[in-house]
Amino acid sequence: MNKYSVGIIGATGAVGTELLRVLEARDFPISALHLFASDRSAGKPLVFRGNPITLETLVQESFVQLDIALFSAGSEISKQWRGAVKLAGCVMIDNSSAFRMEQGVPLVIPEINAGDLKSHNHVIAVPNCSTIVMLMAIAPLRAFGKIKRIVVSTYQAVSGAGAKAMRELETQAHDYLHSRPIQPSVLPHPIAFNLFCHNTAVNEAGYNAEEWKMIQETKKILHDDDIQITATCVRVPVFRAHSESINIEFENARPSIEEIRSALAAFPGVKVVDDRAGNHFPMPNEATGQFDVLAGHIRHDVSNPRAIDLFVSGDQLLKGAALDAVQIAESLIEQKLLRH
Ligand SMILES: NC(=O)c1ccc[n+]([C@@H]2O[C@H](COP(=O)([O-])OP(=O)(O)OC[C@H]3O[C@@H](n4cnc5c(N)ncnc54)[C@H](OP(=O)(O)O)[C@@H]3O)[C@@H](O)[C@H]2O)c1
Question: Which of 120, 129, 198, 297 is catalytic?
Answer without folding.
Answer: 129
